Hints:
InterPro entries: TR_Rrf2-type_CS, Tscrpt_reg_Rrf2, WH-like_DNA-bd_sf, WH_DNA-bd_sf. The protein has 143 residues and is mostly helical.
Amino acid sequence: MVQLATVDDGVLVKTDDLAKSQGIPAQFLVDILTALRTDRLVRSHRGREGGYELARPAAEISIADVLRCIDGPLASVRDIGLGDLPYSGPTAKLTDVWRALRASMRSVLEETSLADVASGSLPDHVATLAGEYLGQEQERGHG
C-alpha cells in the first residue's frame, strides 16, 4: 500500500511489479489485493495496461485501515472482545491494560497515513514514540 502511495495519480501498478519489489509471492499478494479491493482501499483495472491504484488519496488511508482489512481488529486478546474478557478479582485490571494497549495502537495506527509513511514524515507523536523505543532498545543492547 505504501508503494502504491508513492506512484502518481492515475498510474497503475502491476501485481508482478509489486510482488517483485516487495519480495513476496505474487499469489500471496493477489490474495491481499483482493481483500484490499473488497474493503475499497484499492481499485483494480483489467487488461494489458491494467493494474492497481489506491482507491482514495494516500493521506486518507490510515495504517489502521490496512491492518484491519488484512488482520482484523488492531488489538484482540485471544479473539475475545474487551467487554467479554473473563478477568475478576486480582486480575480485573487486566481489562484496562488491554484497553490502554488498544488506545495506544489506535493513536499510532489511525493517525498515521500511507502518505506519512511514503513521504518519511511521520506524525510527531509517532516519531517521538519510535525514538523512545529505539533509545530503550539501545540501552538494553538490542539496537
